[in-house]
Amino acid sequence: MINKITPTHTVCWYTKWVASMFIIVGVLLSSNNIFPYNLMFHFIGLAGWLVVAIIWHDRALLVINTVSLAILGNGIIQYYVK
Question: How far is residue 72's CA from residue 66's CA, in Å, rounded to a whole number?
Fold first, then answer.
C-alpha cells in the first residue's frame, strides 16, 4: 500500500483539482480547434496551478506556470487586438 503525503480536502487540494479540470477542458478545446476558448481555459487552469505553486513554494511549478501564463496571456491579448 502507498501512503499519500499530500493532504486532502484543503483549499490547495481543491484548487489543484479544479485547475486540472480547466486544463483538461482546454486541451479538449484545443484538439477540436475551438479558439480562443481553449486559451482561456488553459489560462484559468494555469493560474490555479500558480496559486498552488505559491502555497507549496515550488520553484519549478512557479517558473513553468508563470511563463505559460505570460505566453497564453499574450495569445489572448493578440486575439482581441487584431
Answer: 10
